[in-house]
Amino acid sequence: MVEEPRIPFDFEVLYEDERIVVVDKPHFLATTPRGMWYRETALIRLRERYGEPDITPAHRLDRLTAGVVVFVRRPEFRGAYQMLFQNHVAVKTYECLAPCAPAARPRFGTVERLEPPRVFPLLRRSRIVKRRGILQAYEEPGEVNAESVIELGAVGANGIGSFDGGRGGCADGRGAGRDERSGCGGVRSGGRGPGVRAYTLRPRTGKTHQLRVHMASLGLPIVGDDFYPVLREPRPYDDFSEPLELVARTLEFTDPVTGEPRRFVSRVPLGGR
Q1: Pairing between strand 246-254 and 66-72?
Q2: At 83, is the secondary structure helix, strand, or coil?
Q3: Biased-composition ranges for Gly residues (predicted)?
Q4: With contact defined as beta carbons under 8 Å apart, do 222 and 212 qualify?
Q5: Which of 128, 218, 133, 227 has its CA nearest to residue 182?
Q6: Is 250 left (phi over 0), alpha (psi -120 to 50) or beta?
Q7: What digits encode the pLDDT tens for the residues 251-271?
Q8: Which residues are CB-neighbours of 67 under 8 A, at least 6 positions away?
Q9: Residues whose CB is less than 8 angstroms from the CB of residue 171 and which lie 6 or more positions away in sequence, other chains included
Q10: How far is Cα 273 from Cα 88, in angstroms, rounded to an integer?
């Protein structure tokens, strides 16, 4: 039997009550058991930490995506919280790092400028399909089933949502040399090719790999993405050197049991730990 590799990153508990536990999942840690991953998942770690075998996720994030995840502690409340996500009532905001470049014309679907003549924010709409046994999702002609709003990222006072590293740099669109097509004013490449910057992503639907597919289709693949636009050779499981720079930054919903407004914010930084 092959020993399950250890994931050397753990989650932070952002909130808990008698019904739910909200965690800030790191990159590389799967939400639930799948394939070779069982104990090295957020779900099993959480069950073992609390000694509560009934804990169940209300939704999931990809193993390579970091950010806010809600778990339900008691079976009688599972349906109420899971329906928030199945019915797309919960509002999610993601942040990512991607090339600072003009958006390309996608092969399928549409792009709508929401504040013309500015390119961003834009609404990306297409049909995304994920077939069983195929690692990548892909776009095809047909009825639209995936919508994402893509904005230029903002720099927060506490650094959350911003990128200020040597690999590229984060800009908020100010400064000399601004490119009005891409919003890349002031972004540095550090001599390593095109610069990168932060983007804010607001999915309106929840198709598999939706944000990764939509960003890649615009010629703006997310930094660290081994699947899009092309499938790369698999990396060793103990290679944590280049995370997918995608974070589920905020999650908002009205608590289906108490009626209280809930808002949770991930502390996972972009651009390295």
Answers
A1: parallel
A2: helix
A3: 183-194
A4: yes
A5: 218
A6: beta
A7: 999 999 999 999 999 999 998
A8: 24, 25, 61, 94, 247, 248, 249, 251, 266, 268
A9: 100, 183, 184, 185, 186, 187, 197
A10: 31
Q: Please tell me the pTM assigned to this model.
A: 0.87
Backbone angles phi, psi at 36, to 5 degrees: -80, -5
Give 176-224 pLDDT, tens digit per residue.
234 445 556 545 444 344 599 999 999 999 999 999 999 999 999 999 9
pLDDT, tens only, 63-80: 999 999 999 999 999 999
Q: What domains can be seen in the chain, in order of their start residue? A: 1-87+250-267 (3.30.2350.10), 92-156+194-232 (3.30.2350.10)
- Give dist(CA 270, CA 113) in Å, integer: 26
**How far, in Å, CA of 25 to CA of 270, rounded?**
14
**Residues forming beta bridges with residue 264, ordered by sequence position:** 251
Asked if residues 71 and 55 have their Cβ atoms less than 8 Å apart, the reply is: yes
| DSSP annotation string for 209-234 | THHHHHHHHTT-PPTT-SSSSSPPPP
| H or E stretch covering 47 | helix 42-50
CA proximity to 199, closest of 147, 271, 117, 137: 271
Q: At residue 13, does pLDDT exceed 60?
A: yes
